[in-house]
Every structure is written in structure tokens, then in C-alpha cells.
Protein: Glycogen [starch] synthase
Organism: Characodon lateralis
Amino acid sequence: VVTPNGLNVKKFSAMHEFQNLHSTNKTRIQEFVRGHFYGHLDFSLDKTLFFFIAGRYEFSNKGADIFLESLSRLNYLLRVHRNDMTVVVFFIMPAKTNNFNVESLKGQAVRKQLWDTAHAVKEKFGKKLYESLLTGQIPDMNTILDRDDLTIMKSAIYATQRHSLPPVTTHNMLDDSADPILFNVRRIGLFNARNDRVKIIFHPEFLSSTSPLLPMDYEDFVRGCNLGVFPSYYEPWGYTP
């Protein structure tokens, strides 16, 4: 008996539809990244690629070891050649945790606060602009924002100050010091520093649309990324993805 193994490529014939889905889900990932890297968002999301590896947490069998080594070299080459591209890499592998860490949750709260502030100011700005245009005048841009607006915006900007690097992992690990991914991240020195062109986000839990942190199902998340890397040691193409 010959059983099929792999992808049914006929499912992927409507390319325009999948391009639209990629764009929509990429936007959702970008929103998460904005929150995760608040205060250190000095890279352009328009020039950012999203890579991921996912599966059971088998550090060598799933190829996480060789993937980390290659990311270290990629980071070095991008820095040496002063390339302005950034690569954000997700490790989606379940490990023992005791919930999300505070810094990751705070990042999403800060992002939402900034979004709400921007929309509140925009509503007031829009109303003043509308009323000015009705009278046949171009508004004075120096006066269209009042002191309260500036105070609110300054307060929101102040909330984005942070004195620590964006976390490498989104959860509190039960055995942080012995975790293979975190151990090797420390060894190769990928700590999400400003001058790193490769950023690491270890999400030690399978994805779910009900998550308060990254509310996406796996299939949607995959559609939003640019590249999935599956350097599995023992499985043929098809099983792991």
C-alpha cells in the first residue's frame, strides 16, 4: 500500500487569496512585535522578516540546535555588512512554564495604551479639522492640538521607556538555567540587543487564538510568516511541518 505523504498542492492554487491571508496575518504578528519590543522598536517592520520553527521540544531531533547556530552566523553577517533588514525568529515549542512573564504582558498593555491614545487624539483632531474646513479655512497645525493632547501623548511616550532588553522568552520557565534553547541563546549571545539584526522570541507553548499574548491559531500564524525552518534530524519532509 502506498500512502501519500506531503502537501496537496492543489489546495494552494488560488495564489491571490493566500497573498491576502499572508498580508492580514502578518499585520497581526507585527502588532505583537510592536508590543514585545516596545522601547526598542528602532527597526522598520516593513524591512523585517518573520521566521519560525515549531514542533515537539526535541532540541536536536527537530534541529533547533543547528537553527540557532545558523541564526548566530546570520546575525553576524547582517551586522558586518550593515544590512538594514531585521529577522524576528519564533521558537514555538512547548516546555514547562508557570504562565506568561510580566514583561511580555506589559508590552502588549503598553502597545494597546498607545493605540488608544493615538485614536483618542485622532478623533479630536479630525473633528477640529472638519469644522475648520466647513468654514473654508485651512487649520493652523500649530494650534489644532491643544495642551491636553500634548500632555496625553507625552504621558503615553513616557510609558514606553524601558531599562531592560526585550525578553527572549514569553513565559516564566520552570527550569530556566537548564533549558536547551535558553542555554544556547546565552552561549551565542542573541539577547535582542539594539544592534542585533536577528531577534529571538521563544514561545514555549503551542499557539491559540484565545491567548492574551499572541492570539493566533497555528495555521494563521504560519500564513503570516515569511519562512518556516524544519531541519529535522530523522523525519522526512512532510511530517514535521
About this structure: The first strand starts at residue 48 and ends at 54.
